[in-house]
Amino acid sequence: MKKRYVGEIGVLRSIACLSIVLLHSIMWGMEYIGFLRNLPRISQQILDSVNLFLYYGTPTFIFITAFILGYQYENRDVHAKSFLRKRLTFILIPYFCMAILYATPYALISPMEFIRKASLNLLIGDFHAYFVLIIFQFYLLFVLFKKYFTRYSSRMILTTTFIINVTYLAVFNFTPPADVPAGDYIWTRFYWVPFFGWIFYFAVAYYVGVHYEKVLNLLKKYKLVVIIAPFVTGAIILYLYHSNTFTVHSSKRVDMVLHTLSIIAFLLLLTQSWTRIPKWLLLINDYSFGIYLLHTLYMSILIVIINLFQLDFGIFTIILLFFGSLFFSIWTIYVCNQFKFGPYVVGRINQATRR
Prior knowledge:
Elements: H1 7-32, H2 41-53, H3 57-72, H4 80-101, H5 111-124, H6 131-145, H7 154-174, H8 183-188, H9 199-210, H10 212-221, H11 223-242, H12 256-271, H13 279-308, H14 316-336, H15 342-346
Helix pairs in contact: 1-2, 1-3, 1-12, 1-13, 1-14, 3-6, 3-9, 4-5, 4-6, 7-9, 11-12, 13-14
């Protein structure tokens, strides 16, 4: 029997997408636009805090991927060839296109520099779309090991994956780079890509998908805890950061694991009271993958224009980067999808059944 479309996951995907665009608007604005670095210290601290809070976006996409697998394939066999073909076509091929596109500015330096950067992007995710490589690792693991999921208790799998996930992140969060070739790069960037840093999200999401109705009942039963949790985890993250106890600025912080899951639980509970999903959230959901791929391109262009013409909009520059990159990304996706090749370049427009 075909299961219903889970509108809550569409909302979750939209909010995660918007959070990532806002996060980059703040981060890139503060980094690359001079006058934003001259804002009062309190304003910079507030923006920095908002940025840190928003890092749940990328792990939420990992959660959504696993949730869908658990929800759709609980009682279905996985046919590896057809399962992977669809995802290779509409997810991995656009990733390859973007990996090359984002390497093209390096051609201005030299052809070899372009080849180097394109290779890094393609093979180890050396640009913002690295999360595609992460979800493909999970697709492969799902195809290979799905039949074993029922052989072990969910408690054992969740405990094991939690230990693996936290230990892995702790190594890179709390130890200096190893004295090995490319050690600094591995510690600052490459460790993002292997699935060990995300495996607990995947395990939790898979079981949430399998037992979704039971999970919803639990969220409602412990409603007060679910509502308070994101504020508690957020406060802990901000305290550790601003007290210089734990200064990593990333979605790969150890404490981001519980923070992300608390926000997901809160949003799933919140959407249960909605009779209809707002149209603007449906729009973002439909274009979310392409937005994720394209928004930094347009953000870069806007930053160049702002710096070139010395435009000073104060803190509203962040709003300009946010809405500007969002609008131009959606417009590009729409236009490209009018052509047969479009979905293979910028991702296709998702028009799932509405609830």
